[in-house]
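Re: Re: ligand-bound prediction request (bumping)

Still looking for help on this. To restate: I need the protein modeled with iron/sulfur cluster bound, output as structure tokens. Inputs repeated here so nobody has to scroll up.
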Amino acid sequence: MRETKYWALNLLAGLLILVLLAQHMAVMQLDGWLEKWLADWIPPLSWPGLVERGTNLIQMVSYVLLLGLGLFHGFYGLNKILAEFIQGDQKRRIIRLGCTVMGILLFVVGTTVTVGFYLVNG
Amino acid sequence: MTDQTVTFRVRRHQPGQEDAWQEYPVAVHPGMTVLDGLQQIKEQQDSSLAWRHSCRMGICGSCGMVINGQPGLACNTQVLDISDRRISLEPLSNFPVARDLVPDLEPMFDKHRSIKPFLIAGQQDGDEPLRQSPRQLTDYLQFSYCIKCGACMAACPTLASDADFLGPMPLTAAHRYNRDSRDDGFDQRKQSLGDHHSISHCHYAAECSKVCPKGVDPAKAIQYLKRDLVLDLVGLRRRPGPVPQGSPGTPRDDIPKAPEFTVKKP
Ligand code: SF4
Ligand code: FES
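Reply:
Sorry for the wait, this slipped through. Here it is.
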């Protein structure tokens, strides 16, 4: 049953990633278009643009969420793919543990940078 | 149409020995099945060739084998429908082999047993018959046509990489019973269905549905199972019941009466 939960969460993560990624892409890629509509528009790749996003609470939370969901979705998938090539529950457990540790580690690093930036510059 | 000769290439397996291919020329005629061809080889050329069969009419599911790379039933495959003049025959993949074309189906039946393939009674009253409407029957009818031939198991790429994966046949059986309005065993089955070697491992190659000789469509059953498990997780799964109440209906008068018992009940 635990596996069903992870799998359902993986589906949900996929859907949420679509939404968050769409928002991220809109901010980063549609800059020329947004410029026409937003009075106080700052180019996203400039330093002030980065600081603006990094110090915005909603933006910061959405980036941490995107990071967490992306890592879960990616490592869950990677674990499933690797499990196809490996025989034996013991080895599969090691792969699963490896994927979990890598995911948590990358999440901690990414969150430290994002939250740290927000706290220091916000 | 005159007889033609087709070469049967059979993968021979003897326990403890290397597998070897052996060829047999077989005179074939229209209407001849692969099973007939094997029978002819056994009678006229090589009595040591082993395979399993029983009904000869696509019902018992015992003559499953890989025919020209595709799992199927030997009794259900017309030799002249195969355009090739050479027919290769191998035991079902993803199964241990007992001898020649005889797979050991035990692992499949162990998995089948693990999903509790029987009606698990719920809250019905004691001796009340379990009624079902024609609409409720259609919910699972297609999935009840399975003859346990194992062709889908042999075609499944997930089973090829994970021998513990439940596989299309047991999963289809689980769905067949889960969708039955007379059954109340979903909660008991979901433990093994939610396991790491179960439905979440299926990535919908759908080869099982392509090879099934009975049109069961195991891939569809697995997608329904996935949906049911997720809906159950969020408390939205719809139970297939309730059992229809009221009159059982008037029997048609054009149906002959059953004969009397020749031995009277005391
Ligand atoms: S689902 Fe089809 S292929 Fe699979 S065991 Fe049943 S009848 Fe055979
Ligand atoms: S012999 Fe029974 S299905 Fe082929």
